[in-house]
Amino acid sequence: MGAAPSAADSNCLVRNEWICAEYLSSRASQLGEAVVQHIWITVLSVLLGLLAALPLALLARRYRRLEWFVVGATTALYTIPSLALFSLLLPVTGLSASTVVVGLVLYSLTILVRNVLEGLRGVPADVRESALGMGYGSARLLFRVEIPLALPSIMAGMRVATVSTVALTTVGAIIGFGGLGNLLFEAVNTQFRPQVLTAGVLCVVLAVAFDLLLVAMQRVLTPWSKAQVTA
Fold first, then answer.
1. CA-to-CA distance for 70 and 66, rounded, in angstroms?
2. CATH class of the domain defined by 28-220
3. CA 7 to chain centre
4. Distance between CA 96 and CA 107 in Å, rounded?
5. From first to last of its 231 residues, what are the pLDDT tens digits of the chain?
6. Are 89 and 102 spatial neighbours (Cβ–Cβ below 8 Å)?
7. Is the pTM of this model over 0.70?
């Protein structure tokens, strides 16, 4: 009879295999912390990006001469490499999660400003005129009529911005706030295969989960658009 396999031979961690159940069970707590950090950085960045994009889009719509500046500036920000942008923010925000969040907010503006502006401009003029004729003020017109009708375009921008933010969050690992990126960068440097694969797969799962969640939210918030498609 042959010799019984040693513990080292039967341990996929020791063999550094790509798929390793032992890694998942032994590092569950570490993986959970990384996923939680990745989620809250992504959610906070996209929500703050939307809050910043709305007034910028309203400004661009109201003053046509400023549109090129607003759209051009947000587009220019997206061309800055993430490593360079985070480095530029460090003297202001320091080595903290704020550096990553602020950087991701700036990146999300490129997508969100365009989609909010497109959505608002897509509201039919006769609908606005009817609302004004019914005594709606500008604030009521915006929040009760224009934004609800612009939601399909806004939500489309949210989906793209969120998936993009999930990917860009990993770069925050350079200052220790990259969620799954922390594990990914650490594993790449040490060539630890199970961690590379697990962190990468979880990033993809998060992106898909966020996208499906936003699709579901859009269907709930815009039931009339589904009715139009069905008709």
1. 6
2. mainly alpha
3. 43
4. 18
5. 333 334 444 487 777 777 888 878 888 888 899 999 999 999 999 999 999 999 999 998 888 888 888 888 888 988 888 888 888 898 888 888 899 999 999 999 999 999 999 998 888 888 888 887 887 787 888 888 888 888 999 999 999 999 999 999 999 988 888 889 898 888 878 888 888 888 899 999 999 999 999 999 988 887 766 544 443
6. yes
7. yes
Kindly state the tokens that stand for 202: 């979880």
Token pair listed for 97: 């999660």
